[in-house]
Design goal:
single chain, alpha/beta, Rossmann fold, 5-stranded parallel sheet, 11% strand, globular
């Protein structure tokens, strides 16, 4: 029997998006995974995303070129140094320079377009409002507003043939909860990548915001961290 329950899953190659894909598959969805080369500092995460899509048996894995580098404004897309642990301790509640302006809005817009074309009414994204970096486009208010807009801006929404749902199964989970969920679903986190500033040979720096959250997540989950760090 053909599975017609389709979902577009935003896949970065990190812990959260990989866990979200496992959740979507466990819920019976046929997966159409979507990744982006957006001018980020390295392509390691995209290599991981390709592997993950194959391992998880995605129906199709699409990688789009959406170059945000000319816009800049982020340490991930501009000539701005990635903050390490000492800088992060000083930053307090300030939104870090690793925030990429409008990134999730842009990514979800592309996902929405693809979902409408293939007849998928569920879009999965691994945003998290608990153990995260304070990015404004990871908040429940943003997701709710985007979902409302999606149903105003699409043929399916206007004709009321179906509602577009932005699925955020990790929104209120800690990083430890996310990892434990993934382990139960058989996720091998050794194939994921989180670091913003890896070495030339692909090892995680261990001191950027994303590495710190990753380390803490594995420690709190009581799971061995499989990540190769520089030191």
């Amino acid at each position: 029997m053909t599975n017609n329950k389709k979902a577009v899953v935003l896949l970065s190659g990190g812990i959260d998006s990989t866990t979200v894909m496992a959740i979507a598959i466990n819920q019976g969805f046929q997966i159409f995974s979507l990744s982006f080369f957006y001018g980020q500092r390295h392509a390691i995460e995209l290599e991981c995303a390709n592997k993950i899509a194959k391992i998880f048996g995605a129906k199709r894995h699409l990688v789009l070129n959406v170059d945000l580098k000319p816009i800049g404004g982020s340490a991930l897309t501009d000539d701005i140094e990635v903050p390490k642990i000492n800088d992060l301790q000083k930053s307090g509640n300030v939104i870090p320079v690793t925030y990429v302006p409008a990134r999730n809005t842009i990514f979800l817009s592309y996902a929405l377009a693809w979902a409408e074309v293939i007849g998928a009414f569920n879009i999965f994204i691994g945003v998290n409002a608990v153990d995260y970096s304070g990015y404004p486009d990871c908040r429940p208010e943003f997701i709710s507003a985007f979902e409302k807009m999606a149903n105003l801006a699409t043929k399916a929404g206007v004709e009321q043939t179906s509602n577009i749902k932005i699925q955020t199964p990790l929104l209120h989970k800690t990083k430890a909860d996310i990892i434990q969920t993934g382990i139960k679903l058989g996720v091998d986190y050794a194939i994921t990548h989180s670091c913003y500033d890896p070495s030339l040979d692909g090892k995680a720096c261990g001191f950027c915001d994303s590495c710190i959250l990753r380390k803490k997540g594995f420690k709190d989950a009581g799971v061995v961290d499989p990540t190769p760090y520089v030191s």
